[in-house]
Amino acid sequence: MLHLASPSSQDELEYKKQHLQSAATTQEALGGELAERRAELDKIDGLGGKIASELEALESKSAQLQQELVRLGQVEEARSAAEAKKAELEAKRLDLLQRRDAVKVCIVDGCWGLCA
């Protein structure tokens, strides 16, 4: 004996098939979105690594520049000390030139006893 489904059972079966197909399509679409989001997350993780690397490089450069500023400060101190020494030596040079000229005068005039 053959038992045929009633029209309402047939409609319900068709509805469930459509619903199942719709769910499968939705699951497939969500799987594609999930793959896209995972790819985006991987890119973000990669960018995070690049940012951390660049930040480390910038911190290193900043430390280097700070050291250079300290060194430049020392250069200014050295320059100032050198200028003071130059002024001191110039004063000594002028004093020695005056003494030399005085000794020359003594030699020319013959006044050795007075020049000492």
Brief overview, please?
The chain has 116 residues and is mainly alpha-helical.
Overall geometry comes to: rod-shaped
Radius of gyration: 48 Å
Helix content: over 70%
Largest sheet, if any?
A: none
Spans of at least 5 consecutive residues with low confidence: none
- Average per-residue pLDDT, rounded, comes to 87
Q: What class, by secondary structure content?
A: mainly alpha
Give the SSE string: HH
Total beta-strand segments? 0
The span between the termini is: 154 Å
- Which oligomerization state do the chains in this entry correspond to? single chain
Strand content: under 5%
Instruction: List the total number of helices.
Output: 2
How would you sum up this structure, described in words?
With 116 residues, this protein is mainly α. It has two helices and no strands. The protein has a domain at 13-85.
What's the helix and strand layout?
Layout: H1 7-109, H2 112-115
Question: What descriptive keywords fit this protein?
Answer:
single chain, mainly alpha, 2 helices
